[in-house]
Structures are given as C-alpha cells and as structure tokens.
Amino acid sequence: xxxxxxxxxxxxxxxxxxxxxxxxxxxxxxxxxxxxxxxxxxxxxxxxxxxxxxxxxxxxxxxxxxxxxxxxxxxxxxxxxxxxxxxxxxxxxxxxxxxxxxxxxxxxxxxxxxxxxxxxxxxxxxxxxxxxxxxxxxxxxxxxxxxxxxxxxxxxxxxxxxxxxxxxxxxxxxxxxxxxxxxxxxxxxxxxxxxxxxxxxxxxxxxxxxxxxxxxxxxxxxxxxxxxxxxxxxxxxxxxxxxxxxxxxxxxxxxxxxxxxxxxxxxxxxxxxxxxxxxxxxxxxxxxxxxxxxxxxxxxxxxxxxxxxxxxxxxxxxxxxxxxxxxxxxxxxxxxxxxxxxxxxxxxxxxxxxxxxxxxxxxxxxxxxxxxxxxxxxxxxxxxxxxxxxxxxxxxxxxxxxxxxxxxxxxxxxxxxxxxxxxxxxxxxxxxxxxxxxxxxxxxxxxxxxxxxxxxxxxxxxxxxxxxxxxxxxx
Amino acid sequence: xxxxxxxxxxxxxxxxxxxxxxxxxxxxxxxxxxxxxxxxxxxxxxxxxxxxxxxxxxxxxxxxxxxxxxxxxxxxxxxxxxxxxxxxxxxxxxxxxxxxxxxxxxxxxxxxxxxxxxxxxxxxxxxxxxxxxxxxxxxxxxxxxxxxxxxxxxxxxxxxxxxxxxxxxxxxxxxxxxxxxxxxxxxxxxxxxxxxxxxxxxxxxxxxxxxxxxxxxxxxxxxxxxxxxxxxxxxxxxxxxxxxxxxxxxxxxxxxxxx
Lengths: 475, 259
Fold this sequence. Notes:
The complex is a heterodimer of chains A (475) and B (259). Chain A is mainly α and 475 residues long. Chain A has helices at residues 25-32, 37-63, 67-78, 87-118, 127-145, 152-173, 176-179, 182-198, 202-221, 229-253, 265-291, 296-311, 314-328, 338-364, 367-375, 380-395, 397-410, 422-430, 441-470, and strands spanning 2-5, 8-11. Helix content of chain A is 73%, strand content 2%. The longest helix of chain A has 32 residues, at 87-118. Chain B has 10 helices and 10 strands. Chain B has a 6-stranded mixed β-sheet, with helices on both faces. A 4-stranded antiparallel β-sheet of chain B has the order 2-1-4-5, with helices on one face.
C-alpha cells in the first residue's frame, strides 16, 4: 500500500505488518467460546435459544395457513379502496416511481459533477449498490405480491421496477439545463400522482398552482444575478399569474377521485408518515429557532406548544381531535374529515419532537461560528440558514431518523380513531366470518411486522449513509 | 504620577491619516464584573496598534466591542464615521468595514475553503459568483495557499486555517482588521507563517488592531503598543519604549513574565 503523507511517500511492506495468528476451529472455540465456565454457560444458553427460535419459526411456517393474507391482500395494501378503481393506485404508483427515478438520477449526476469540480473521489454508479441499499423494501414488495391470486400485480410491480430503472437512467443522462428543473418536474409528478387517486380537489389545485408559480419565479429569477426592481416585479407578477391560471385550470378539469378519507392499508401508513415527516420537519426547525428567539412572545408561544404536545400522549391528541373537537365546534361549521384532523395532530406531534432534536443540534454548533458570520456582516437569517442550521441538522441526523421511524410506527395508533391503517387490517381480517376465532393473528401479525420492519430498517440504513456522506471533509 | 497620565494616553494617533476608530470613555460590564474601564483610544488610517496584557485584562473584550460582538455599556465607539448604537443598520455598516480574525479560526467546517471566503462577499455585498471566486483565488495566493481552495477546513493545518480566516476577512475589503490572539491556538512552527501574513498586510498599509502575546511581532510591526490590565489602559507607547523603558510596575511585571 502506498500512502502520501505531506509529499513523502511511504511503502508499507508485508513484513512490517503485525503478525496474524490463525487458529484451528477447535482452538478458536476453546479460546473464544469456552475459555471458562461462565462463558461456556453463556455460549450454551445463547446457542440453545437460537436453535429453539429456528425450530419454532419453522414449525409455525409449516403450520401457517396464509389464506387470510391472500384473501385480504388488497385491504392490507390499500384498505377499502373500490375494487374497480384499482387503476388509480397503479397510475399513482407509476408516477411516483417515475418522479423518484428521475429526481434520484439527476441528483446522483449533480453530486458526481460537484465532486469532480471539487476534485473529490466519487464512486461510480452501480445498480447492485442500489439493490443492497433497498433490498429490504424490494424483497418485502415481492413478498407481498407473492400472495396475489392473479397475474396483474406481478406485472405491475415488475413494470414499476422498470419505470424506476428507465427514469433514473434518464435522470443520470440528462443535460444540466434539465437537471436544474428536475425538482419542479418531480414535484408536479408527485402532485399528479396524488390527483390520480384523490381527483382534482382544492388542495391539489392549489399545490399545482404553487408549484408552477414557483417554477415561473425560478425561471425568471435565474436570468440575472443582479436583479433590478422591474425584474423583481415582473418575476412575482408572472409567478402569481401562472399560479392562479394553473389553479383555475386544474379546478376546471373536474376529475373525480377518492379523497384520503377512503384510503387505508400500508398505503395510508406510508402516506401519513411522509406527510408527518415532510411537513413536520420544516415546522420543527421553525419551532426550534422560535424557542431561541429573543422575542418573549415567540419564545413562550413555542415553548408552550412544544411542552404541551410532548406532555400529552399521541393517542390522547388523536382521540381529542376525532371525538371531542366536533363537540366544541358549532354544527354549521364544516370541519375537515377525521383523517385530515389526525394528520394535523401527527404533524404537530412530530414537529414538536423534531424541534427538541433540532434544538440540541443548534446548541452543539459553537458560538464562534455565529460570531465569525456576524463579524463579516451577514444578516441573522443568512447566518441561521447557511452557517448554523446545516451544521446543527447534520449533527442530529441519527436522532432525527429515530424520530421518523418512531412516527412511522406510531401511525398504527390511527386504528383507535377507526382508520384502517396497516395494523388495523389484521384485526379486521380476523373478524371476518371466514377467519373468525381461528387464532390467525399468528399469521397476520408477522406479515404486518415484516412490512413495518422493511421500511424502518431501510430508513435507518439510509440515515447512516447520509451521515457518512455529509461527513466528507469534516473532522 | 503625572508621568503615568502621559503614557496612558491612547488617543494620540501616529501619522497624519484620518481617524478610523475612536473609543470615548467606553465601559463594559459582565454582570457585576467590570471588563472595561473608561477606555479612550483612537486608531488612525494605516496604523498598526498592538494590544498586550495579562489574560482577563479586557483586551479581547475591547476589540470585540468595536464590531459589536459585545455591546458596550457606556461611552461612544465610532468606526469610520459611524457611531455604534443598537441600530442594526449601523452595526451591519461597521461590520462590513471591519474584518475579524479569531483565536480559534472559526472557519465554517461544512463548506470548502473557497466557499468560506466567497460566502460573505456574495451574501452581503451581492458580488456575482465568478467575481467572488476570482477574488478568493487572489486572496488565497496572497496568503500563500493557492492550491487548497477545494479542500475543507478540517483538512488543513492550523496555520493554513488561520491564513484562510485572514483571507476570509479580507474578502469583504475591510478598512480595519481586528486580530484576536490569532496565533495563541497554533503550534509553534505555524506561528511564523501567520505572523508573516499579518506583517505583509501591515506593510500594504492595512489599519490593524492586534491582540497578541507575540512581542517579536509587536516590536517589528506595531506603530503603537497598548498595555492593558484590569480593564484599563495602563501604558501606551512605541514598541521600543516597552522593551527599553517601561514605566508602570504592572507593565514591568507583565513583561518580565513573558519575555
């Protein structure tokens, strides 16, 4: 091995390495597993438990009748979504796969070019690497599909994988001009996938209007680095006009769908998690910053909110929003449906926890960082955005992903307010006359557990990867 | 006693340039502890003032008051014609004109050396990216580390990091540079490279206030040396004065301890 240290080349020779002693298996066992009586005992107990676990699992697997999963597969996946509207989730899935593939491919290419510009090494793209990262989810999706009794789900899943492959390749090969616009294209695909399920609601139309307006503002904004007043005015007016026109246009289409109050299964579980994370994160950061504010009102308001939400069990908040809130509100005022209210509760809950995690990160950033930025005349906003938050957030990635995983599992509490999320399907299936009283939870619970595990495990693995990636150059 | 008053006057600037920094009866308290007592001081254009004194004497507090990293409690501070007040616009105006170099470098570890230098010019002075990068490249050449632009601060030695910090402060084209013990956190072999950079800067006519224990630097570069103890200015004079003929007991004691 040749290393370069301060321009001085050192060659590490084979004979310079410390000697490695190889033991025969029996010697190794004697030294490491049975070197005294209590280690021998521990080895025996652990070995016996392992054997017992394998035997019990095999016995369960041989005796298990998966008929209940086969019958209810659709309910496990998407809840009570109407059977003859199944094309909607599939279209939605394809659009999501396309958005994910395109955005991730473009991001990969951006990271590569960034590293090349900085002269840093960057590993070549490899699909096997991607399989290793997401194997748990891929395996579990194949496992789910294996319970299908017809051919279409197999073909559908295969085509989704193909879509991801093609769009990711397209993203990786795209030109820089396309790549800077990919976030907008991705966001629009995401919104359209949502509309494919839910139809053209007011929320969908406003979101599409906002995305297109933002895109317009981006396109005009990037034409100059030193904007004039006229330029800025044109930019904002065009953005608003495009946004409003898009909103009117989408509303005019009048495409019917099934709002999220009809959703269920693992689809609902994942949807609520994504909403809780992606909206809870920015709000959590704002709350953490608010808690540090010098303005007494902002500070006490955030402290009261955070401590209230953290001090009350999630289940209480969910029950309150579902059953008690309507009692306090006059009948003639329409309030959002139960799932919408539950999602607001879950988002607020995750924001409060994220705020406390981010606060820890903010405290870990040395005061000297702020002072150096202040001394150069940077504004308070720019200091937080460019200096403090990037360092604070990096420091708390493990805790943050821990919170995301626990939010993902906490969505199972939605069952207490009568929503058909992933875990609740198991209870519903076991209450069907066909399967009632046969103790089939021993089949459905492991099935559900595997589903949760695959996603939670992937999240935790990805968090370690992001951490390692962001650690580049930082000691 | 009359002798002492003459020596403790830090308001007499050297040379004929304009006065850039003026401190007038400045007091600073940390709770009950008085960190600065009635500081009167002026710094003229192109002057290099070295502030020395035992730790806890208020030297760092003094220069941190000049760019409002600390808020002074009494008196007046005027930098380049702008008086420091609670008005954030005045504070920002003064911070734009004063560069600061810290004892612990305080480089931003999450962005590259180049980005460290271009960040403030782009954010505060709205300099276009290409211009800012050209400026940064020039500055890195000036501090003699032109080939480290793409690295991260953590990959550089202490001396290199401090020189990047100097380049970062210079990128704002300040009228005054404040140095807060810039070599105290460095290994001995790296002190020289940082002092040389500072020396070059002084020769180019930069107005500087340096808090430092490097008496060799003071002797070679300083126009005036200010000795502080217990939050007040005790003795002021050209460097030779301190090495040949210090007047005050506290000055003599301090110099005997560090020389």
